[in-house]
Amino acid sequence: MNSGPLLFLGLFATMACSWTGFILAPQLQLGGLTQTNTVVVGDALAQTYPLPMPGEAHAGAEIYRANGCAACHTEMVRPPDLGSDLQRHWGARRSLAEDYLFEQPVMLGSQRIGPDLANFGRRSDTNGIYLRLYDPGLITRGSVMPPYRFLFETRKIVLFPSPEALVLPDQDAPPAGFEIVPRPPARALAAYLLNLRQDGYLFAAPPPPLPKTNAVPTNAIPTNAVPAAVKPVAK
Amino acid sequence: MNPDEPKRTVHQNRPEPVAGRSSVPMWLIVVFGLLFYWSQLFLAENAGGFSKDVYHPYTSYDDVAFANPQDPEAKRRAEGRRVFMTTCYACHLESGLGKEGTAPPLVGSDWVLAPGANRIAHIVLYGLTGPINVKGQEWNLTMLPWRETYSDEQIAAVLTYIRSQWGNKAGPVDPQVVKAARAEARPNYESSEELLKLPVQ
């Protein structure tokens, strides 16, 4: 072992190179990111972006993390020529570093067993989220997502039913006189998911040029893709 | 211990093994040199100058700037709105109409719509106290000075914003006007008599 110092120097240089490339360079490049103004076309006013998460959404991020949602769902829209994310209406633009300014930790995910959720708040609503969590197959037939029924409770209806009670088809309906309502973790998770919106064009991802005709552009975002109505329970 | 096992001897005379040296083959150096050259070409082509604003599919800052809407005034109005919605709106309200007992209106106010912006710049920089006539109504309140909080560019942006918003139609404000007003180094809290002595540029 006569070349110990040389070996040490080689190992140190290897670690230093990767540290420079993976930690120092991104920190120098993106470490100073702050809120910016969105880019608008015409006379519309720019908005500050991104905005801090509301408190309940913060709590929901912990639920999202604790239940391993990021194991099957990503939160990143890929650029236009790398995959079909934009064609699937998963976002109006690609994701940027700014989008994750208030996320701690950033739950990008790596596998898309389920759809990307970067803009889920734009295409869902509270009731749809509850139904998906309670029985994913209700909304997407053949969904492989496991049900998260422990986020809900079945309770006796006292005086009058809760406005939050899930409207379920017969096979899932609770016994007569009972109702299924979301527990606080489900509410927090729904708040987090509704807060997932990467809307607003930024300088680094500007809006596409305006179409020259009145035709609807092919990359238009559907105004609100509310899940198909579930047959209400016959009372 | 097995008594039949032969006794082990220590090889006292055998030297410690030593790693030798040999020169790196020339072809390996050439291969690494070519790899390095290729990686530098790749970075020059795709790294976008390591700018934080350049993402795929753009390859340089100029590309991104070209793809953005070309309207510098919109950018300043946007910054002005951001400042306004951080500070000013608390008293003057998002509508710019102000509120009885809190702040006078900015909409249609002669102070805001004056051809030169130096008086209004003084108000934002140094604050204002005492009676002031806005749109024929007498107000007697106090506005805080903001010269420590915002830069010349930000104050010019917010002035541009309030002069072009809510139906107000007055020209944009050059940061130089704010800079000149700041250089006068007046004490805190202007009064309307002092302001009226200033020439409207």
Give structural notes:
The complex is a heterodimer of chains A (235) and B (201). Chain A has 235 residues and is mainly α. Chain A has a domain at 37-146 and 185-194: Cytochrome Bc1 Complex, Chain D, domain 2, CATH 1.10.760. In chain A, 27% of the residues lie in helices and 6% in strands. Chain A is built from five helices and four strands; from the N terminus they run H-E-E-H-H-H-E-E-H. Chain A has helices at 4-30, 55-66, 120-123, 126-134, 184-194; strands spanning 36-37, 48-49, 152-156, 178-182. A two-stranded antiparallel sheet of chain A has the order 1-2. Chain A has a two-stranded antiparallel sheet with strand order 3-4. The radius of gyration of chain A is 23 Å and the shape is globular. The termini of chain A are far apart. The mean pLDDT of chain A is 87. Chain B is elongated. By secondary structure, chain B is mainly alpha-helical. In chain B, a hairpin with a 2-residue loop joins strand 1 and strand 2. In chain B, helix 3 (72-92) crosses helix 6 (152-164) and helix 6 packs across helix 7. The longest helix of chain B has 21 residues, at 26-46. Chain B has two domains: 26-67, no CATH class; 72-197, Cytochrome Bc1 Complex, Chain D, domain 2 (Orthogonal Bundle), CATH 1.10.760.10. The chains are: A mainly alpha (235), B mainly alpha (201). The interface between A and B is medium-sized, with 28 and 24 residues.
- Supply the CATH architecture of the largest domain in chain B: Orthogonal Bundle
The CATH architecture of the domain at 37-146 and 185-194 in chain A can be named as Orthogonal Bundle
* CATH fold field value of the largest domain in chain B: Cytochrome Bc1 Complex, Chain D, domain 2
Mean pLDDT of chain B: 84
| Main β-sheet, spatial strand arrangement of chain A | 1-2
C-alpha geometry of chain B? elongated
Find the biggest chain interface. A-B, 28 and 24 residues
